[in-house]
């Protein structure tokens, strides 16, 4: 459930009219609901209450400082994937003992910064990386805790680009090799403590079955290795919970917890979760204004002021986002493509979508479910300024990232003399 509802013919975020926000801050604009954000975090925490896991919000879904701060203040840890996200985590004074760091390509510089910050775990994805962390950790005079990310070779039944746990994906280490790594590491790498298994099988996963299949393999491995004295204390099961964009029927947080807690309990270790989309996906919308209506002999184009540089998911994954006029009146529907100004035929927010026929230029539309992988994937392509971000709390709202200005576009450029 989310707090974007139509009241008296106007779409509201909590008790604030989105039309009013669009008038005040302009478009395109991302608008987030504080209540929805915290509600989704709480739902997950309550579902897993009996085993009291550490819930590390996956910052790459939406790394806005205001949103991360709200979650951290509510008790969340953070799942980071770069030195840039570590910098953000420090900015909001997040507890570094609640930070886990995953990425197949961490640089030496990033590794050192994270060790010095005192993060809880690196989620290690290769043997070379493990050796490098050991060396840097030794140089810093520390013994760093690490998790080994395994590749359980299961199909997550999601889009190929966000499926991460098949053998042919770049992520993790196969289970046979993982066994050897534990033995090798405990003997030869004194500056790391390998004590966690990490598994993240992909994103927007609607059913429990792939999670169960992957976790059974992870738990069997933990039991076997601990019998041999490996000293594994944690299991990190990643993120990946699906949400409703259209007609999906994803498992609820409770169903997810009920399906996997019995499996996890067998491992007798502490649990870490890394949800991103589940927490923030339906807590945000993208507001965009209709610039032009263009009726061609074959179809209608609704040309809007938001584009693929603002919300890449439709172009990248063919993702579906519901689109609703913010001042709604009932009427006949007409099919249209909703497209942006960017010079690419792949620049669209919706294709062959039934939308009210009465829509006219200057009307504002809300692109729903844009909280996760929306702003965080946005770019300056076509030298477009990135959108403003707004946080709503009941009847109040606040800009939490200003719209970029033209001078921001060229800030780091040098005209040059060559
Ligand atoms: C992206 C990612 C997540 C979050 O995935 P969601 O589908 O947004 O929940 C968690 N863990 C890792 C390692 C990731 O790469």
Describe the structure.
There is one protein chain. With about 425 residues, this protein is of the alpha/beta class. The protein has 2 domains: about 5-30 and about 280-410, Lyase, Ornithine Decarboxylase, Chain A, domain 1 (Beta Barrel), CATH 2.40.37.10; about 65-275, Alanine racemase (TIM Barrel). About 30% of the residues lie in helices and about 25% in strands. The chain contains 12 helices and 21 strands. The chain has helices at about 20-25, 35-45, 65-75, 85-90, 110-115, 125-140, 175-190, 210-225, 255-265, 275-280, 315, 405-410, and strands at about 5, 10-15, 15, 30-35, 55-60, 75-80, 100, 120-125, 145-150, 175, 190-200, 235, 270-275, 285-295, 300-305, 325, 335-340, 350-355, 365, 390-395, 395-400. The strands form 3 sheets. Strands 4, 14, 15, 16, 17, 18, 19, 20 and 21 form a 9-stranded mixed beta sheet that branches. The longest helix is centred in the middle third of the chain and has 19 residues, at about 210-225. The protein is globular. Pyridoxal-5'-phosphate (PLP) binds near residues 79, 102, 200, 238 and 274.
Nearest-integer average pLDDT? 96
**End-to-end gap:** 57 Å
- Classification by helices and strands: alpha/beta
Bound molecules: pyridoxal-5'-phosphate
* CATH topology assignment of the largest domain: TIM Barrel
